[in-house]
Design a protein that fits this description.
The protein has 2 helices and no strands. It is mainly alpha-helical and about 60 residues long. The protein is rod-shaped, with a radius of gyration of 28 Å.
Length: about 60
């Protein structure tokens, strides 16, 4: 009888399912964060290159005068 009760208790216990849900949700949040970081990083690099080019051009104009 103890084995049957243990199996019923195990089947009714939902702690493992909740843990799996949290792990999946956490992995999804981390994945979205990495995707956002990649997109933002690319934009920041492009913007920084543009600013560098503008400052270089402005410095060259100032040196020639």
């Amino acid at each position: 009888m103890k084995l049957v009760n243990m199996i019923k208790t195990f089947r009714a216990d939902e702690d493992g399912a909740v843990t799996v849900d949290w792990v999946v949700l956490t992995a999804a949040i981390v994945g979205i964060g990495i995707a956002v970081l990649t997109v933002v990083s690319t934009g920041v690099d492009t913007l920084g290159d543009g600013i560098e080019a503008d400052l270089t051009t402005a410095g060259s104009i100032g040196d020639g005068e």
